[in-house]
Design goal:
The complex is a heterotrimer of chains A (478), B (97) and C (483). Chain A is an alpha+beta fold and 478 residues long. Helix content of chain A is 40%, strand content 21%. Chain A contains 15 helices and 17 strands. In chain A, helix 5 packs antiparallel against helix 6, helix 7 crosses helix 8 and helix 12 packs across helix 15. The longest helix of chain A is centred in the middle third of the chain and has 20 residues. The longest helix of chain B has 18 residues. Helix content of chain B is 36%, strand content 9%. In chain C, helix 2 packs antiparallel against helix 3 and helix 5 packs parallel to helix 6. Chain C has an eleven-stranded mixed β-sheet with strand order 1-3-2-4-6-5-10-11-9-7-8. The longest helix of chain C is centred in the last third of the chain and has 22 residues. Chain C is 39% helix and 12% strand. Classes of the chains: A alpha+beta (478), B alpha+beta (97), C alpha/beta (483). Chains in contact: A-B, A-C, B-C.
């Protein structure tokens, strides 16, 4: 056991799902031909001025409310001054002394752990630089410049890399529930910087911290933290000091490297953005955000357990994404059996989505159709293997369960007369097995059921087949 | 505070201006005088006074609806860039300092 | 006398009656520019062909008769963007730059039927008080070519004073419209902060910058102000309040107005002829039943120091975008991106701009922010409060436009601090965001014009214009340019 414990805080940047940029009316969509989504404002042309996007403010307010933050009636935009070729104005408009949201928290592990949220503020994204390895030049694409971001800053309440990843996952779920960020880490819609320091267990003071940047997956968050904790621990154990620094994580090599030391730290010269007045969030935006606030994942999971009697594990998996939870609830509602719906959604539905790499909102089997299929199973008209086959076909063609069952003649044979004649045939054709069974080798029942199922091409109601077979065998005993 | 050579070099770095030796000597002397003049602000008692960063004469927080507008023509923009390539602005290699 | 020297309103009346055409006016303006601008150098670029073509087209179509500016040539300071036109802000760093869009104020000139006839000279990025800090060389005062026209909107002031435009736009951050108007014997106005959109004005100090008109009479100034004013969805700091009819109260007379004189403040280095001019004017006003009273602007004497902290802090950030990446000048001596920045900016900016950027960087930098920037913001609050208290008692505040008449070219350019002090009377107004007008008030013994400044309450341009019109009628003033 280590004598040190890590103290971790996260700064998460989330791109907001607005149609236009933070301060101008260029498209905020991902990608596009380089430098085609630019205007005088985001290109920093002489004389251009920023104007705040109302939807971005509303989105930030939603996240603030969802994390229990205070929404500042007056918040202030500030300029963060630094020169970099992906930043056309050579300052970023952000919020500094007076952010929009302050003092919230996120609860994890079913209420076991509370991570404080220091602040959530609005700012603009930078462009993209391509560094040509073969050339002494860099290329700049300004399409991403000005895309609205919220920065979510946590308190140093996190104590392990796993907890950090979990927190990040939880934030992502929340952002997606609120429909304010698509959470796509590959495309950089969600990015993370971490601050980490070590201290002796039981100590109340903080050690010297370092910042690790460029963490673009949950795995990277975990690995980079693990790496940094080990690095700091080695230093401390050897009696050396940790130096304050900013490091850059290289996910390919699995190492972080010092980007700049404390001496090289930037002096950003923050000051209030004089092109924008104090941001007074109109009451209407806050009210609307409250009105549009969906049931949040934790509350929803609790309800699934309390009202629908789902096991906590099911509830947590199902509420991991708003669309999945919606899908489940609709299915359960139509079916009137939450556990059966949960089993199907967590099993077949999620598997099919993963295989087909399709979003649940685009999935061809709609909740009503899934419920129809489960009804057929519950009524004994088809068995489970058949139902899975029908489900696959439904996800392929989008057809209804009953139609597929009828067209393909998949309905179970539960009719005793029909089954009895098949059974008689099977028994006649397998006299050896019959006599062994009657001699006490009852395991052979399974073989005989299999033969009947084979004859009915899988349509026999297995339970019924078992019953009738036993009865027919007993009759042959005499 | 004296604007000495060390300070002016620091300011040059922050402002990304590389002065020549002549300029540095001339400007640091002038800046030092100006800062000396500005020093008179310290005479004023501003206890309890709120800072003003903007003068606003009507109460309206101007927000913009999230409606897309036109973007600029790329050729027009890159046409007057000092250096451009394949639809990108081109700059000398970025070296972290 | 050519049509180019007539007033804006007078010309619109003649144009609407059909007695003259836009082409007649344009031709006379072109003739004046060709005759005089070699000496004055008011223009960075004069759009001769374009002016004549547009004026001819309007003359042919007759479309000018229903618009307020009726096809008249209006000059624009070259820190105001016009689509398809070189926009330099008087700086080498913007050499080769053509704006792909038009500033709202310039668009308003066009929408009001005016023709933008050229771009006028200025101190680089509007930083200066003499128009000597222009990359294109200084402009000259039409009253005496050895003298500076003031600045930074010296080109606009000189163009209007020398009848080379019917009206002009300038920008005023610390007096850059009013001081050159005073030095050139014309009318210049800085409206309430936010009255005219700043969209498309190349920013010097965002919380202080304001575009305003130059004209040869108060009435002309009011009409031009009306043409350019508008709330603007592209400028978050522009006023949403409706734009009034600025000509409405012009002829209400001075009777019943109370005018405050900040005597405590004016003791600072004011030349005797300037003081005498003001004393004479006060006496005349009292005869017109104007109550002239003393007001105190106790903190105004710190305005200059306050201004040089705030304006330059903002400027250091506003001018960061001139970096050689996307437009304008780029050095040929770049080894990497860092040296591209530092050399581009060293080569592209002039001395005054560098001084101000470095000063602004200093007052915002770690360890100095509170002592300088934050302190200055607090002092700004006190200066504003002084004005508010004064305006509890008076309708207008009056003081000289500058402590002296125009100074010779070269006299102050090597002493930045001395240059800064020539704006001492105009600066407090910007810090408080108030409307103010400069109008001619007499001629100094050396033959150069003197000006007086009237300051009003926020949004009360009409009271300012009314007072200015009254003063204009009281003073004996005749423009005596040498060109």
């Amino acid at each position: 056991m280590s004598r040190y414990e890590p103290v971790i805080g996260l700064e998460v940047h989330a791109q907001l799902l607005t149609r236009t940029k933070m301060f101008c009316s260029c498209s905020a969509a991902y990608g596009g031909e380089p430098n085609t989504r630019v205007c005088p404002v985001c290109l920093g042309l002489p004389g251009a001025l920023p104007v705040v996007n109302e939807k971005a403010v509303a989105a930030a307010v939603k996240m603030g409310l969802a994390t229990g933050c205070r929404i500042a009636p007056r918040s202030v935009f500030a300029r963060k001054n630094y020169f970099y070729p992906d930043c056309p104005k050579n300052y970023q408009i952000s919020q500094y002394e007076k952010p929009l949201c302050e003092g919230g928290s996120l609860v994890m592990n079913g209420g076991q752990k509370r991570i404080g949220i220091t602040r959530i503020h609005l700012e603009e994204d930078a462009g993209k630089l391509l560094h040509d390895e073969y050339d002494d030049y860099s290329l700049a694409d300004m399409n991403r410049v000005g895309v609205p971001l919220i920065e979510i800053v946590s308190e140093p309440d996190i104590r392990s890399p796993q907890e950090a990843a979990e927190y990040m996952q939880k934030l992502r779920t929340l952002l997606r529930y609120l429909e304010i960020c698509d959470g796509n880490m590959e495309e950089g819609s969600l990015r993370c910087d971490v601050n980490v320091s070590l201290r002796e267990k039981g100590s109340e003071t903080f050690g010297t911290r370092t910042e690790v940047k460029n963490l673009n997956s949950f795995k990277a968050v975990e690995q980079a933290l693990q790496f940094e904790i080990e690095r700091q621990e080695k230093l401390l154990t050897a009696g050396k000091e940790v130096e304050q620094a900013t490091l850059l994580w290289d996910s390919v090599k699995g190492v972080s490297q010092v980007m700049r030391s404390k001496e090289e730290a930037h002096d950003y010269r923050y000051f209030p953005e004089p092109d924008l007045l104090v941001l007074e969030v109109p009451e209407s935006i806050i009210e609307q955000a409250r009105g549009e606030m969906p049931e949040l994942p934790d509350a929803r999971a609790a309800r699934f357990v309390g009202e629908l009697s789902l096991p906590p594990y099911d509830a947590q998996v199902l509420t991991g994404a708003r669309e999945i939870a919606d899908y489940f609830e609709e299915t359960a509602g139509a079916l009137g059996d939450a556990k059966a719906a949960s089993n199907w959604v967590m099993g077949e539905v999620l598997r099919e989505l993963k295989e087909r790499k399709v979003d649940i909102t685009q999935f061809r089997v709609r909740p009503g159709q899934l419920a129809e299929l489960i009804v057929e199973v519950k009524a004994g008209r088809i068995n489970i293997p058949t139902a899975k086959e029908v489900f696959r076909e439904m996800s392929e063609s989008g057809g209804g369960a009953r139609d597929i069952i009828a067209v393909r003649g998949l309905a179970q044979i539960s009719d005793e007369g029909a089954l009895n004649s098949v059974i008689a045939g099977v028994l006649d054709n397998n006299p050896e097995e019959v006599s062994k069974y009657l001699a006490g080798k009852e395991k052979l029942l399974k073989f005989l059921v299999g033969q009947v199922m084979k004859e009915t091409r899988g349509k026999g109601n297995p339970q019924k087949v078992g019953e009738l077979l036993k009865r027919a065998l007993e009759e042959r005993r005499s | 505070m004296k604007i000495d050579e060390k300070m002016i070099r620091h300011l040059e770095m922050l402002a990304r201006i590389d002065l020549t030796a002549d300029e540095r000597e001339r400007l640091s002397e002038q800046l030092d005088r100006i800062v000396g003049y500005v020093e008179q602000l310290q005479e004023i008692d501003t206890e309890g006074v709120a800072p003003t960063s903007a003068v606003v004469h009507d109460e309206h927080s101007a927000l913009r609806p999230d409606e897309p507008g036109p973007s600029l023509d790329r050729d027009k923009i890159l046409g007057q860039a000092p250096d451009a390539k394949d639809g990108f602005f081109r700059v000398p290699k970025v070296v972290e300092r | 006398m050519g049509l180019n020297s007539r007033g804006l309103v007078e010309l619109t009346v003649l144009l609407k009656k059909g007695e003259i055409s836009p082409l007649d006016v344009a031709k006379d303006v072109v003739a004046a520019v060709e005759e005089k601008d070699g000496d004055v150098h008011a223009y960075v670029e004069f759009y001769k062909e374009d002016l004549l073509e547009r004026a001819a087209a309007l003359t042919k179509s007759g479309d000018y008769r229903s618009t307020p500016l009726a096809g008249l040539p209006i000059a624009v300071k070259d820190n105001i963007c016009v689509e398809g036109r070189a926009t330099t802000a008087g700086s080498r760093i913007l050499s080769g730059y053509t704006s792909p869009y038009t500033a709202t104020a310039a668009a308003n000139v066009l929408r009001s039927g005016g023709i933008i006839c050229g771009k006028t000279n200025l101190d680089e990025f509007a930083m200066g008080s003499s128009t000597e800090n222009s990359a294109f060389g200084p402009s000259r005062n039409p009253w005496n070519l050895d003298y500076a026209p003031g600045g930074s909107s010296g080109g606009s002031a000189a163009a209007v004073a020398a009848d080379m435009a019917v009206g002009a736009l300038g920008s005023d951050t610390g007096g850059s419209i009013r001081q050159p108007a005073g030095f050139c014997g014309v009318v210049g106005m800085k409206p309430t902060y936010g009255r005219v959109s700043r969209y498309g004005l190349i920013a010097f100090a965002s919380s202080l910058d304001q575009i305003g008109p130059f004209a040869r009479s108060v009435e002309d100034c009011a009409v031009l102000l009306g043409a350019i004013s508008s709330g603007d969805a592209q400028d978050a700091t522009s006023l949403r309040a409706p734009v009034p009819d600025f000509a409405r109260d012009l002829d209400k007379g001075l009777d019943g107005l109370t005018v405050g004189i900040p005597r405590d403040f004016m003791e600072m280095g004011t030349r005797p002829e300037v003081e005498e001019n003001l004393t004479t004017l006060c006496a005349r006003l009292e005869k017109e039943n104007v109550a002239v009273v003393d007001v105190s602007l106790a903190h105004a004497r710190y305005a200059c120091a306050c201004y040089y902290v705030i304006a330059n802090a903002e400027a250091s950030s506003n001018l960061a975008r001139f970096d050689g990446v996307r437009y304008g000048h780029r050095t040929e001596h770049a080894r990497d991106v860092y040296s591209m920045y530092t050399h581009t900016r060293d080569e592209g900016f002039g001395d005054e701009v560098k001084r101000r950027i470095l000063l602004g960087t200093y007052v915002l930098s770690a360890g100095y922010y509170d002592a300088y920037y934050l302190k200055a913001q607090k002092v700004r609050s006190l200066i504003i409060r002084d004005f508010q208290n004064a305006f509890d008692h008076v309708d207008l505040i009056m003081m000289p436009t500058a402590p002296s008449a125009a100074f010779p070219i070269g006299e102050k350019v090597s002493d930045p601090l001395l240059m800064y002090l020539s704006d001492i009377f105009t600066i407090p107004v910007n810090l408080a965001g108030l409307p103010a007008i400069a109008i001619p008030s007499g001629v100094a013994p050396d033959g150069l014009p003197l000006g007086v400044q009237l300051i009003g309450k926020p949004l009360e341009e009409n009271t300012v214009l009314r007072g200015a019109r009254g003063v204009e009628r009281l003073v004996d003033f005749e423009r005596k340019t040498v060109v």
